[in-house]
Amino acid sequence: MTKQAGAETRERLIEAAAETLRTEGYAGTSARTIAKAAGVNSALVFYHFGGVDPLLLAALDRSSQQRMAAYEAAVAGVRTLEELVAVATEIYRADLEGGHITLFSELVGASIARPELREEIVRRSEPWIAFVERSLERVIGGSPLAKLLPPRDLAYASITFYLGVNLFTHLDADRSRTEALFALAERVAPRAKLLTVRLPRRRGGGAKDETGTGGT
Question: How is 114-165 classified by DSSP, letter by letter?
Answer without folding.
Answer: -HHHHHHHHHHHHHHHHHHHHHHHHHHTTSHHHHHS-HHHHHHHHHHHHHHH
